[in-house]
């Protein structure tokens, strides 16, 4: 698992000739740290970083709020057609994203959302997977807590905000990590929905170093290293909550 990351870091400080050398070499003769500066010069990498951060933050915050509300309703509330609605929502997971890409583009164009943060953030603030993940976690919590809160006069929203959310830190962190990973690495949606360079994200910026006839591997790997570091740090600091949330939500291998 670690070897590809080490190779990525090694290649990011090589010269172009060393990156193409056969047999490959692990350690360059001279460290070309300037590759990282060249990445910033060749493309608007800072702007791509900001766009990706804003898109990821907006999607993650939206999913934590909306998916948790929907999950609480499906797990604890009674209303007509709950099971049917839940099954219909889960059926969305079986539809490939490529199938709905053209209708989605037409909708975004009619809303005049193309090349804006609206198109990057709003369609990703809810997911059937996030709702299912949190629903499974909520259903595993003791129902006595909900009954005790009702006896004390707590409303449904009060039970959700004061009882369920404080006990669901691990599940919420798990959903946040999943959403951050998917949003940070998203390529297809931003590529189709944006055309202006000011609205591009990291995944598109990194792909510009790969040409049809030649690829500048040192710059490509340097860009990949800078794009990967935040995700690695997030997982390192929150892996305990991530593993706990997966183990307690019913999604097991």
TrEMBL record:
Keywords: Cell membrane, Membrane, Transmembrane, Transmembrane helix, Transport
CDD domains: TM_PBP2 (cd06261)
Membrane topology qualifier: Multi-pass membrane protein
PROSITE patterns membership: ABC_TM1
Gene3D superfamilies (alphabetical): MetI-like (1.10.3720.10)
Localization of this protein: Cell membrane
Pfam families referenced in this protein's UniProt entry, alphabetically: BPD_transp_1
Coiled-coil blocks: none
InterPro entries linked: MetI-like (IPR000515), MetI-like_sf (IPR035906)
Highest taxon, organism lineage: Bacteria
Domain ABC transmembrane type-1 positions: 49-238
Membrane-crossing segments per the record: 48-72, 84-105, 117-138, 159-181, 217-238
Family classification: Belongs to the binding-protein-dependent transport system permease family.
Name by which UniProt lists this protein: Carbohydrate ABC transporter permease
Record lineage: Bacteria, Bacillati, Bacillota, Bacilli, Bacillales
